Amino acid sequence: MAVEKLIMMNIVGKNHYVEKVIKDILLFENVQIADAYNEIENFRFSMDVTDNNLDEILGFAEVQSGLKNASNEDFVSKSNLLQEVFGDHYTVDKKILEGEIDLKSTIRSVNKIYDEIHTKYKILKMFNDDINQIQKSIKVYNFLSSANIEMDKINNMENFHYTIGTLSKENVERLKNNYSNITAIVVHVGAYDENEVYVVISPYDLETETNRILKSLNFNKLEGVKSEYTKKPSQIVTWLQKKKNHFQEKVELLEKEIDIIKERYKEESNYDYNVLHLYEKIHEVMKDIAFSKEHFYFSGWIPVRLKKEILAILSKYEDMIIMFNDNHQNPNVRIPTKLKNNWLFKPFETFIKMYGVPLYEEVDPTPFLSISYLFLFGFMFGDLGQGFVLFLLGNLARFKGFQLGSIISRLGISSMFFGLLYGSFFGFETIIKTWWLKPFSNVNTILIAAIVIGVTLILIGYIYGIVNQYKSKDYYNSVLSRNGVTGLVLYFCIILVVLALFTGNRLISIPILSSIILAAIVILLFKEPIIAKLSKANHNSSHKLDSSFFVESFFEVFEILMSIVSNTLSFIRIGAFALNHVGLFIAFESLAHMVNSGIGSTIVYILGNIFIIGLEGLIVGIQVLRLEYYELFSKYFQGGGIEFKPAKL
Fold it and tell me: Does this model's pTM top 0.85?
């Protein structure tokens, strides 16, 4: 439940086995590739100078980026050939790729399979194209079949031209309203796809004007009219149908032959696809590797706990140098972030990444978000029955591959727990025993509990923020800033003052608290000059204590005080939604009583629960996420990190 520790791994080896090394790294699936050429150029690719590695060190002088040495071998096009023939059913299988691989044999196999099947595919495509054209002609001549006249007489008219096409119903009305302006004879012959089909006959002299009018009506010409079809439309349709059936028989035979070939090469093609996919990935990785005449230089981030494993995998290569460099102290190096959480918290990493990736130096916010999110959702949506439905729906969604399914199932468990505390089962509060209280009967208690929960979470947020700033070596801000120790003390003292005023419980006297609050405000007002004075890095910087400084600082402190109030009061919504959850069911219960029918009332109860689970559950989920993002993350979550993305197949 933390940000996993990473370390930079640098490798130097012989060029002749670079592809095998990359293959092992891809199958290892725990190394994020870094640009080795950039590491060398910035003097971060360090090596010990010994007699055994002089050649490797001298290679730095002639090193080139892998982009310049990228192979022109088009593995993508070869794998596309296989997918064109066999479809997209391939899956990458690591077991297939663990042994020795003969790339040349694989390419020969792909070419052989493609050549054997490609000719049949070309003929099949030709037949299918012909069938499509015939189908278009059948459709057109079916519309003309009512005309008992041979088509060669219509096609060879000396003074008239005809066309057939469709108009939408709206444009048909426009056509009817403008018949007097139409320079053609328009005959309705049928309907097609919710449109009306018309034959338009116009004089050749007026063809341009007719086309202009038809264009304004969005007239869509139907394809399929052929001058070589000279018989009556009904005879043409019969002849075309026979021709289509003949072609379809040919297609069926070809498809059977192709299926036989596919079955014969099924396993071989799957192996070929995996090999091609592997080499496609290998050559992508090679773009980030640096090369000299004899050596390659590789850089990548790897979890510290896996050092021994990667060393064991790569130990089989002769004359290879593997170094692990700790770049954590270099401010110019951005270390990727790999979150490591247990099964309970891991699904909530989705919410973290929606907001941003934590910096490598930050404390992993996932456990705190997970616990607080589950607690707040359950508090606001406590019901044993409805929670059980959420649990079932979440598990169903998880099995269907829906990313949020695991979160929903956990929220269901939290809702069930608070449902037991509230004694609520599908909205009814008389079926099960109440373990704590009934929200609607204890409004003040619920609202006070909401504020207490909010204050507790905000205080924890402050502590997280202080730890994060300290880990980032931002020592001055960890003490003096609004989200540091000063901000925490100010917030805590204000809470104690409010507690004393409303309850009379004075843990610390008001004058002492007032003095501490005043001191904290003064520190926040003069934070920048104080930091500038203390910091050696900013020793020469000047902060003029002029009117603009005081105005800016005053409004900044005023905003801090206002945010303290608003952030705390925002948590009242926790209690409000807990009450709203009960009140919404009471509304449906009243409707059920108004129906006053056994079946009717049951339907109202069912629909009410569906509405509450669906709509209110969504709203509560969004509201909790808002509290996490705006009221808590602002205290401690910086973001701006780079997600750890290991190279894999």
Answer: no
